Predict the structure.
Amino acid sequence: MMADWALMDQTFYVNAVIYTVVCSGIYAQLLTGAKRDDLDRCQKNLSLPWPLLLGVLDDSGYVQEVDGIWYWVGESPEPRLIHQLDVMRRWLNLGPFSASRQLSPFIQTSEDNRLRDSSSLLNERVVSLMHSHKPKNWLDVGGGTGSLSRSLASQGIRVTMADKPQTVERTAINLQHPNIRLWAGDILDSLPRGLYGVISLIRLIEDFPLATTVDLLKRLKSRTHSQSRLVLIVTTVKAGLWSQLFAIEVHITTSQGQLYPLYLLHKIATASGWWIKTIQREKMFNILILEPASAQKTPHITRRPKSHLQMSPNTDRERLLNFGILR
């Protein structure tokens, strides 16, 4: 009688085995040839015996044994698939998870591809919104893959892309353009020099706690003039199931990250010296255009009905009180 697992999707099980050998370090050994002793040392990372796993991969054409040495002979594991399985593992555990060294290259490649694909529409919206503003200098904070920087540079805009050193090092090869300046550092500790007509933070502040966001926006204002604009893109809190799932993912993957509802963004803007000029919705994202509050003759204060404030999370209100944003 056929085993129960054989009645299920065989591809899923093979992919799970590939994920396991990548996670355990066996895949790295197989690339150059792994002896039994090499595989035995990886056994401590496994709950199944490695001969069983390699047997499955041998039958599937991924590995081959030659003179007692195992080699990987199939196609390289697909980064997005590895990342998908890793995300599934995190969701099943619903707890903090740090990617192992073996998984990191696959996850980073997959994440770069995902961000590049998902950001194209947002990049187009941002550029179109700022078209009439005609900025000459643009600072893209947390530029990641550099897709926005490349788009801006091709239109003759001088853009400074700021990100962490490891990110800049990884993406620099694709950002060789006379209009692109790369800045590597921690944006929470220092800022690129100069004044900018536009500063963009696309899906970035969700990684930060409230106090950090307020401080960052205050410091970014020092890199602006009266005609400057700040572009914020954040996940819409009330966008339905996807934003709820993303909120959980933020809490799983970051220690202090959060989603920012619009009422809170209004108060953060006021506290950090900005004024929200426009808000537009793009699918599950809010695009906010801010300008320095000093450019306004009268400080703009958005007043909400009391019933709205009463529905706001108490934890957010308590933190606003602590940071002096609410009185």
Remarks:
- The CA atoms of residues 19 and 82 lie 6 Å apart.
- The chain has two domains: 4-77, 107-295+302-322.
